[in-house]
Amino acid sequence: MVAIVIGPSRRHWLLVAGLASSAAVVGALTIAANHRSVIGWGLVVVAGACAAFGGWQFYDARPRVVIDDRGILDRTLAIGTIPWDDVEGVRLKWLHGHPHLCLDLRNSAKYTERLPTMLRPVVALNRQLGLTDLTVNLDGADPNPERVEALIRERITGAR
Measuring CA to CA, which of 10, 41, 115, 117 is 20 to 30 A from 80? Predict the structure, then answer.
């Protein structure tokens, strides 16, 4: 199988960094006009942190998703690679214009238990939205989501 490597959406993170920087500038102008402005300081601190994070993500060259002979790795889930033996099926679902690969796993609890504490509520949210427990978000990805789904289906049927 040819590896599919999906990097971060640079356009998305550039937009986040730009908008957050603009909000930080508004906060600085508010502080300049009124030195005791809590709102101004709040904007500078929060928007400045968001701008820094967006800039860091913009320059982060590490792949976000890797689909290869070992399985499916989505770094945003922080659970490691899901081997092909554990993947029973896949379906592409569009949610508000954003593509999600819904993974049907033999034992999803094996992976959801590995999720960081902050990400565990996402499982319940996914269920409420009609998705599987774990999904791979392909938003902003260069490859065609339908083609990625087809390649994964081929790999699953070839492994059986």
Answer: 10
Residues 128 and 143 grouped into a single domain: yes
**In the predicted structure, residue 160 carries a pLDDT above the cut 60:** no
* Residue 144: other Cβ atoms inside 10 A: 11
Domain end marker among 39, 59, 79: 59
Question: Cα 95 to the chain's mean position, in Å?
Answer: 14
Angular region, 36: left φ>0, alpha ψ -120 to 50, beta rest: alpha
Read off the pLDDT band of 51 (50, 70, 90).
very high
**Cβ contacts of residue 95 below 8 Å, gap of 6+?**
129, 131
Nearest to 140 by CA among 49, 73, 57, 19: 57
Please report, for residues 37, 92, 95, the alpha-carbon distance to residue 16 in angstroms, rounded to integers and kept in the order given.
24, 26, 21
Split at pLDDT 50, 70, 90, the class of 106 is very high
